[in-house]
Write a structure and sequence with these properties.
With 138 residues, this protein is α/β, with parallel strands linked by helices. It is built from three helices and five strands, in the order H-E-E-E-H-E-H-E. A five-stranded mixed β-sheet has the order 3-2-1-4-5, with helices on one face. Strand 4, helix 3 and strand 5 form a beta-alpha-beta unit.
Length: 138
């Protein structure tokens, strides 16, 4: 019989492998993280002013309702074709001084193509001053 006390080895906690794992994770996250996301195209977005703007005396107005119908100076056009819009603008421009401003007022639910068509018609008849009407969020 052996009555001697068994000698226990002291428990040793080795932190070196733990530090190695933490450093490897740190390196992994540093390498795979994107710190700055740059856009390829730099644009400046327009802002609407808070001042109420009255319609200038030399202005033409195209209004586009939510169904995409055009009104040139409050007169409904018979269809939504580019040629019809262009002819209506030429007719109204005959009564205006040279190079009037065009104001496009489109409903928020109007198709985007309707606004683009109005802008294209304005370009084709020689209107160079264009404004898009906005509403203040007050």
């Amino acid at each position: 019989m052996n009555f001697r006390k068994q000698r226990r080895d002291q428990i040793e906690l080795n932190l070196i492998p733990l530090i190695d794992v933490v450093l490897m994770l740190l390196i992994f996250f540093v390498v795979t993280t994107t710190f700055k996301n740059e856009a390829q195209v730099q644009i400046t977005l327009p802002q609407a002013s808070n001042d109420p703007a009255d319609k200038p005396p030399q202005a033409l107005e195209i209004t586009i309702d939510k169904d995409g119908r055009y009104y040139v100076d409050k007169q409904l056009l018979i269809n939504t074709q580019l040629d019809t819009v262009r002819r209506a603008l030429r007719k109204v421009m005959a009564d205006q001084p040279a190079n009037p401003m065009l104001i496009i007022s489109a409903d928020g639910q109007a198709p985007h193509q309707s606004v683009v068509t109005a802008m294209d018609a304005a370009r084709q008849v020689g209107l160079t001053q264009l404004s898009i009407a906005t509403r203040n969020s007050d």
